Every structure is written in C-alpha cells, then in structure tokens.
Amino acid sequence: MAYKEFVPQSDFDSRIIPSFASADPRYFGFVIILRVALKQLNPPKGRNRFTTRDASNMPRVGLRWDHASWAHFKQDFVRVVLATWDGAFLLTPPDSYNEFIWPEQGGRRRDLLCGLFIKLIDKEHDAHAVLRVVRMADRAAHFGADSTLLASNDVEGVTHGDLAAGARWQQHPAAHEVGHLLGLHHVAWKSAACRTNVLKCYGSNLAEKLNIMGTGDQLSLDNAQPWRDRITAHTGVAANLWKVDWASAAAELRGTQSFERIPRPGLIDI
Length: 270
What we know:
- About 20% of the residues lie in helices and about 30% in strands.
- It is an alpha+beta fold.
C-alpha cells in the first residue's frame, strides 16, 4: 500500500519526506504543517491603551502594537512552539508495512521523525487557525488564553506550583494552545474530577500538571497522538498499529529544565 506524500485538511496539512531529503537521513520525515494567522488587537484609533477581556472574561489592559514588538512576538511564537513540538517523537511502522524502506533496493525499514512547521500567513481565510494577540501593558500580569486568543507574554514562561508536592515549574502558554490546535485536549479531560472542577482538567497529580497539556512544558508519548492519528490518512494503516517513541534523550527531557523543588511555605497552589 503506497503512501500519500501530502495530505491537506481543514485542521492542518501534513507531509511525508523521504529519507534522502529528510533533515535527518536516518528517518523519513513526517511533518504537520500548521498555517497560522496572527492578528493584532489594538485600541481605537488615537489611543495607545485600552481595556480588553481575556478568554476567562477578565479585564486586562493592552497597549497598541508597534512594529518592533510585533516582529519580536511573531519570532518568539514560532521559536517557543517549535522548541516544544518539533522533532520530539518517532513513529515506527508495523512490520507488515514496507513503504518506508531506504535505500529502495536492499535498504531497511525507517521510522518517521515527527516534525512541526508553523507557517505564519496574513490572510485569515487561508489559515488553519486565527489567533488574536493582545500586547500586555503589564508583562507580569496573568492572561487567560485559549486557542483563539493570546497575550504577548504567552511566549514567556509562566510559573506554576504544587503546594503538596513542594515544586514549581514553568509553562509557555503559546505552546499549550498550539497543542489544542493540533487536536489535543487537556491532559485530564477524561477524568471525573475535570467534569466537576475545570482546574482539575489541567491535572490532578504532579505528572499530569507538568505535561504541556496540563500546566507545564513537559511532553509524554501520549502527546504524539496528532501525528499518530494523521499517519492513517497517508498510509491507510490504523493509528494504533504505529509504535511511538522519543526521537532523542533530549526530546524526552524537554520542559524539565524549569522544574525545581522548593520549601512549601509561601508556595501558591494551582
């Protein structure tokens, strides 16, 4: 069963790159392509400040975007998202599937290196996702983001903590929201606790809270599900037949750098 090289869809596009053309020739590349339109939220003409509301309907003070700030945000958005998601996972095809052989004659079956490409575009109707962005007057202020609304400081690390565990860590909310754009839910969305307390959707234990789809920056192999689901569109082979593994030891450790144990007094629980 031959594979389809390129699959365009409404949520995101995806492409398989042969081993000889891949960034790492040990693998075939398997890249999700997400077209994002970033849109400035600005005050009315003649004003430099305005009050807007975040995704939690809380009032926040924003500033007018200038060219330098906007260029810096776009650069950081791509950098932070790729640092989390790009090149983290490998997909191993089932033994019965022989399309990812290289060299074609006498070669061996290759794994697929899961990549992410963020393409920033101007036209909303050509985008998979449109994200409105507020330039925060107070860079330290919390902003409730979602997959349609971000703040300028969502590309910076936000500190969270767990009082019972005596730990704190950081999350980059922009990377979390892109996880939603890829089709991922909050880490504990299936739990009974999530149905009664929205904060529990972000995790009820430390491991869940540290996950990128909780309140941290760390990955688990479950976070490879967007690539695992999409490979079926390319090959016709069911998602559950593909083994998932880490692309490298460094990928397995992503997001762990900010984790630290601290004395419990004064720590704010989430």
